[in-house]
Task: structure prediction
Amino acid sequence: MEELVRCDSCQEDAAALFEWSHGAGLADNDTKSAFEYNLCVVSFITCVRLSEALADGGPREGYIIFLTGSPEEMEVSDVPGILVQRGGAPFVFSEAFYRLRHVVCFYAYHLPMQGSLADDIARVTSLRAIVLFEVHGMNGPLPATIGELPYLKSLYLWSMNSKTTGPIPPSITNLSRLEALELTRTDLSGPIPEDIGRLRRLRVLNIWGNKRMEGPFPAGVTSCRNLTRLDLHSIGLLGSLPDDLGDLSRLQVLNLRGNSLSGELPQSLVQLSQLRRLDLYENNFIGSLPDGLGTKMDSLQKLGVSRNNFSGPLPSSLGDARSLTRLAMREAGLSGSISSELGQLVRLRQLHLGVNQLSGPIPSELGLLVNLRELSLKGNQLSGALPDTLSGWKSIEYLNLRNNKFIGTLDPLSNLTSLRQLWIGENSVSPDGKDVCNKFAGTLEPLSDLTSLRRLWVGNNSFEGHLPVGFSAFKNLSRITADNNRLVGFVEHSLRGRGYESLHWLQVDHNRLNGSVDLSVFPKLENARLDHNLITRVTGSIPQSLRSLDLSDNLLTTLPEGFHSMPNLEKLYLANNHISQWPNLYELDVSNNPINVDVTEFFMPLKWQNNLVVLDASNCDLYGAMRCEAFLTFPRRLLGHAAEVGDSLDERESVTAFRHLGSISLSNNNITAIATFQAFESPLYHVDIRNNSLRRVGRPDSRLPSSDYARFTQNPDLRSEQTDVCISLTPIEKCNDLRRSSGAHQSFIRCPSLTAYDDPRVTPLVPDPQGYVVRTLENGEERFECTEFCSVHNRLEVDYTFASDALCRCLPGYEGTGINCTKCPPDTYSNREIGTQTCKQCPDDAGSEEGSPACYCRLGHQRGEEPCEPCTAGSIGVRKGGADGSRIAWICQDCLPGLDCSVPVNYNASVLPGFFQLTVQLQSAGSSHNATREVTTYGARLTSLPIVTPCPLPSACIGTNKTNGLNICSEGHEGFVCSRCKAGFSRQTPQQPCTECAPLWQIAVVNVLLLVATLMAIFILTALAERAASSLGAEVPSQLTKIGLSHITAVCGLAFLAFDKSSIWGDQISSLLGRFFAWDGGIAQSYQVCECVLRPYVGDECVLYRHAMWLALPLIWLTAVPLIASGFDKARHAFKSRRRIGSDQSTPLATDTHLRALSTPPSVTDGRADNATAAHGPYQRTVTFQNDSRTEPVTRPSCQHSSAEPPKSGRWRQWLDNRGTMMVVILTFLHPTVTKNMLALLRCRWYPYVDGVIFIAPGESVSLLPIDPMDDMRPRMDLDSHVICRSAEHAPFLWIAVAGLLLWTFAPVIGGVAFLWRHRDGLQDHHTRRRVGFLYAGYRKNFYYWDAIFAMRRVLVLLIAQQATAQPRQ
Result:
């Protein structure tokens, strides 16, 4: 199968596939174009070309629908992410699926999908496979027409959440090409079709886990001779297996477990030579196992026949199945002895023969099973001693020999160091329950080296001595069961370290433990059964983790030491001992126990503990009312006297229980009432009864406990009226007012509800006026705020529902009492100053919305001495939030720069020309991507003031629309601050207005003329430079040209700045003169070709690309111009040769002047021969370097190389030497141009910032931005203000600018200075002057580097001009 990038035939399904995907919730309208263009790019679609075998006579090209909701598949599929976005809502399987004609596989895994497979599935004839794994929500029966799919090869329905119902359709046997059929864990019912044998190509048949299915074993399945896997477990099969089952010669897996099959196994079963797994677990098979089972089964790895009704011995032929790794025959009815041939199964790892009727000893040959990991022989009648060969089980981890008749010691097990579980208990009990004499005996010392043990069960034997203790600790041993033995102690000698550091279960009851026992050797012990021994004392530290301790039926005389330090103890059994003294409890913590009794009954046995100080019964399932009898008792003498005379007791003679109790915690129970707290003689300092079901506390003559800290929270039905508490309504400023002197405090002593029987010293409860906190209702609404009671004298914590009228008040904008609050209607208000009990009406010139805490001035008014005053001309309305979060209010403020305030500005601000008002795009959540509308931040109430910024080109901004306040740009301009040219317009610099693009031919002509003019200037300056290299008088034109170019760069840069910053010129004059001064003294250029020609290809970023291209253009100039000059030279030389003009020496155009200069008299100073110098020699000439002079040797003409003679360094070296001056001239022209363009990419202006699109949630209104745009200034590129500087969009151009400055601005200057410094002693050599003399000719000797100073001055001027223009105009 080959994956395709595009499938033309598949595109026929594009419309139907999109309709199905859209209806399912897998695709939205935005992806429709992807389906129409190429559905192979859709994330859950894979286009394929099938192999000839898979095509099987059908079309080869098609596509796979692959849907998986598994989070682990998020890296390869978008479906899990779509499912998360839908909040887990199920996908929908619609009928549009049946219009598909090229789908070859529908695969859905682990996702919810509603719908069902209908009979129309037969129309999708291209299907090769249907795979539905854990697709929850698909329901209904299998289509009756499923058998009409001519090319279907695989049908998988697995774990369909019991929604696939009905029988298996009979037509399924018509799928002549079907190779795999799996129907598992569904709600299918009925039998397997009888003619299943018609599926002759079937290789896999898995029908299992369908609890509603039943019926006979399909005998026709033996006709499916290609079957390799037959799994029919747990589907209610009845009857016997067919005799020709052995004809399935290719079968590798046969799983029939969990059915009701009966009869004997067919003898042909032994013919399945390729069988790897045979599982007949839990059926009703009878008879003996087939003769020869395993003889020809060299591939058999797993054999399971447990829980059947076989009879007879274990076949010795199983020893021939040498590949067996698991043999399970427990509860199979087998008898006889264990065959010694099993010792040949050297690969066996698991051997389970438990609960049979096997007898005799364990064959010594089993010791050869060196790979054995699990062995279970439990519940048989095996006898004898363990063979010594068992020591060869180096890998065994589980050994279960219990319920047999073994004898002897455990010495053969001493080397099983990998053993984790050892079960050898109950060897003294026969099957009829009577004790027998066959037992293991000796000690447990042979187990001391089995340090991998986790569970040890040796109960009901005759072991003596102590628990096993070796040289290594039992780090993993967690459970020991050694009951009914003859052990006399835990350990025989002291342990080095914690020998049983993981043990949590210890059962050694019915032994002979005597004297004192030390539990500290078991630091993590949780359950200990030590009953029915001879223990007299428990010493050492008792483990803190202990939960259950059984010491009943021993010889204890006192409680175990450390009884008070067992925080987790839940069960303690001390019955039938000799304990005579009980301790006096001071602290009792029984929290987190399921005591589940009436709370009064819980207290009754404890009230005799007179010394109890702390009681914690939290989370103990206590219920009911706490009645008075829980706290009152009678002296023992009265109880005895009343018992003797049969008289009743007078309540007045009762005494108080819990006299010293100071802390009581009954939280997290179900206590409904507390009768009184008056019974406590000493005041409680801590009471915690939170999270109960209290409805009443106290009685008419009692009150809440006088404690330092009492918690009654999370009792929703408890009210102050049911407690008779005293709540003072006298207003205070703060809780510290309650600390005043007694005279000033008298007003707080008495409450209105106090009666003559109340205690006049009662201190009332006073709400804290500074502790109010807003409460949020379940629906998220906030209507009121509540506080707590002052905690000056004591602290009482209750829910606000306890006394809502006293503890709660309505929020501003609401009216009512306590928590019964409603919103104020429109044009009314309430706040804390005027009170929130009722809402007051707003004045006529003010208004409010529903639920307002204050009134706001109406439009065009502000607050003054009168409630509201109108705004005047020259001012702007500023929206402010009212007090306490009220709705927008208006004030008037002086006009801001850039605004037209001839009339008061309230909604749409009018902006003066030359300014731009900040706008945003509003988009409602849920709308399409393009459904936005542009608004100003001020008009949309996103900002309290209009955000206005000057335009970099004032003439581009001509004001705003009077209706909607949106900006208006001049012709040809658009975008932010109107800085971008529209399509069809362009400009030379950002400081010039956009003009309409000229015709293409005109643009081409202008650029050609500029190119020719630049080439002529380069050629002329090159000729002057080469002449200056050999003639002192010729240096002047070259120097003047360089100085002129440098001054032009400086003047144009400063003029460019002056026209941009000054307002006296006007935009038109500045634009006109700006075009003239736009030249930088370098390469003349016209940028219209970039904006007008390239815009259709690169979009609005053409403005940036026209500057970025100067990173590569210098290389083109340095390569192309010398080549053009060379071409001209060759053409000129050929022309002269034909006309026989000149001599045999041919000089290039660029070097002709140099040769003529060499033919001048040998010494020239100011145009005159220097006779004095001529005396030095005929071949000496004096070269004047302004005020300095030096004598330079001159090569005689006869020694000069002919131009036709190639130099020794090669032709290219000669060509570079000839063009050296020209390249220096080109770099001189390129330097200011490249610098200016690279600096333009770095030029940024600061503007107020706001996100381009603001989303509005459904049902929500627009609110003020969290950050004012004027406080969030961000730089934007001056070339294109839509690009944020230093953003990801700006990053490529930033790197281009840095690279261009380094490569073409600084590198040539630094390289030139370095070259001149290196050759500073030979600068007057004619060869050096001819190549680079243009750089230093005309300067004094020591100032050869001065041209670099001029170059850096040009850079500085351009930097100042470029960056200064990016600052806002004043």
About this structure: The mean pLDDT is 79. Residues 3 and 493 are 74 Å apart (CA to CA).
